[in-house]
Design goal:
The chain contains 14 helices and 13 strands. A five-stranded parallel beta sheet has the order 9-10-11-12-13. It has a three-stranded parallel beta sheet with strand order 1-7-8. Helix 4 runs parallel beside helix 5. With 401 residues, the chain is an alpha/beta fold. The two termini are 34 Å apart. The chain has a single domain, classed as Metal-dependent hydrolases (TIM Barrel), CATH 3.20.20.
């Protein structure tokens, strides 16, 4: 069979399972009870100050003079809206940790109609968005002091996600909700509340122990996982949702961290498999958003080999009954935007275990060329495989007709 030419490769409308939304300034002030509106998350225009990434978390402080930028304020936290998180439309040299105002960023970052237009430009039919100010799985609220307010903030975000961001989009914006990470019972209740109104995705931490929370090995989260399984709610674990990212030294280039960031996905996948979570909840589905996929074949080879050699020996405590790859192929999914090596290994990654993304509007985003990039990456795949990767598997996961 002769290789296809690029012009012969058709990319159907994409369902992106990892994009991001910059929350509108009035999200919480419009939804929190009146007594909390002056202390809940709110936006103020303040002079650009300092920002440093420490342990995967930005530590920020406004300046006293100079250019005004948009800062989120909440308890003692300051967090500016950054060019790094709103990179689409900025030239590469301008994509920095500097703050911006809402007037400076592309409207599609935070407004529904312009987002849908940008999706059209990019060949994206539907999009699932992670939060910005709450961080990838709501760590901001888990770290706050006032947990009563934190719970109200989580619920307000979810109400906005369902009732404003996604409502009226014709099903093109897919709801992804948060849970109160500090309490598994509350998390389960929030999953049930949102599932009752059609939500099929929830953001969770890839490595909750990195957040000072019980690990997935502890059994603490089983009430939450059970609720997800019973409601068909998919766990979306975004790279960096454990806050602590792989790092070799304090003086290492940021490019080191960017390159090896998928290491958290490796650790998380081992956790979820060897903890027995997937054995106990055989219908629970887990997606590794922005984790890429090229590493998965070797991970499965190594995990199966370790299981086979050590399950009855020193390292086999609590060994699962089936090889790790069994649980992966049954319940786990990679999600990527650019991974030629992964596509070359597509049979071992599993054609039914792959989903696609555009990462709009982040610095790594492939917008507005996602379809063109896909055409180049998938030139050696048949149409049925392409359909599964860019939309079919996502539709099955989220029950999209």
């Amino acid at each position: 069979m002769q290789p296809r030419r690029l012009a012969e490769v058709h990319i159907p409308p994409i369902i992106s399972l990892d994009d991001h939304v910059i929350e509108p300034p009035d999200l919480w002030s419009n939804r929190l009870p009146a007594k909390y509106r002056d202390v809940g998350p709110r936006v103020e225009e303040l002079p650009q100050g300092s920002a440093a990434l420490q342990g995967g978390k930005f530590r920020e402080q406004p300046g006293t003079e100079g250019r005004l930028v948009s800062y989120w304020r909440y308890e003692d936290l300051f967090m500016c809206v950054k060019r790094l998180s709103t990179a689409v439309g900025f030239p590469g040299e301008a994509v920095t940790l500097d703050g911006v105002t809402y007037d400076e960023i592309r409207p599609g970052c935070w407004q529904q109609s312009p987002r849908l237009q940008d999706m059209d430009t990019n060949g994206v039919e539907a999009s699932l968005c992670f939060p910005n100010f709450p961080r990838f799985c709501g760590q901001t609220f888990a770290e706050a002091e006032d947990k009563e307010l934190s719970l109200l903030c989580v619920r307000a975000y979810n109400d906005w996600m369902v009732e404003e961001w996604c409502a009226g989009s014709g099903g093109r914006l897919l709801p992804l909700c948060l849970v109160p990470l500090w309490d598994a019972d509350l998390a389960a209740a929030e999953v049930a509340r949102n599932a009752a109104r059609g939500v099929r995705g929830v953001a969770f931490s890839e490595i909750p122990a990195y957040l000072g929370l019980p690990s997935v090995h502890s059994g603490y989260w089983d009430v939450f996982f059970r609720q997800c399984e019973e409601t068909g709610t998919v766990l979306f674990l975004h790279i960096g949702s454990g806050t602590k990212m792989p790092k070799t030294s304090d003086d290492a280039s940021d490019l080191v961290a960017v390159t090896i960031g998928f290491g958290n996905c490796v650790a998380s996948m081992a956790d979820f498999i060897f903890s027995g979570v997937l054995q106990r909840f055989p219908h629970l589905k887990v997606v590794y958003s922005e984790g890429q996929i090229g590493w998965i074949p070797f991970f499965l080879e190594r995990a199966d080999d370790a299981w086979e050699k050590h399950r009855d020996g020193t390292f086999g405590r609590g060994a699962i009954p089936e090889p790790p790859s069994f649980y992966y192929y049954r319940q786990m999914y990679g999600c990527f935007f650019k991974d030629y090596h992964g596509i070359e290994s597509v049979d071992r990654v599993g054609i039914d275990n792959i989903t696609f993304e555009s990462d709009y509007p982040h610095a790594d985003s492939t917008w507005p060329n996602t379809s063109k990039l896909a055409q180049d990456m998938f030139v050696n795949l048949d149409d049925e495989s392409i359909e599964k990767i860019v939309r079919g598997n996502a539709k099955s996961l989220l029950g999209i007709s």
